[in-house]
Amino acid sequence: MLDVLVQIVVALLVLSGCLLALIAAVGLHRFPDLFCRMHAATKPATLGLVCIALGVGLALPIRESFVKVLLVVVLQFLTAPVAAHMVGRAAYTSGIEMSDTTVMDELGRDEGTRNRYGATR
After folding, report:
1. Helix 64-93 crosses helix 34-59 at what angle (to 10 degrees)?
2. What is the three-class DSSP state of 80?
């Protein structure tokens, strides 16, 4: 009975991870600019990988492998946000245009930090 419960949990984790990866792919296709796409590439994809890795870790019969899977999860949580931040900062400083639908430029230097309605923050 416990094996069936573990298999159900593994299937739910892997399925939710695949769904999150699909959401990330759709976001990469649909979002208008690099900055929005970068967000879509890191947030759901990271959580999707974590769900899949935890499902695989639970499915493995050797419990020592779970430590390796946990290491993958920790490294993913440490590296993906930092890499996305560095790519975003490099894109902003190199002059990549933001979408017209962008509401606020928090790094704007010319006119302070203004949103599109003219209010300063």
Report:
1. 180
2. helix
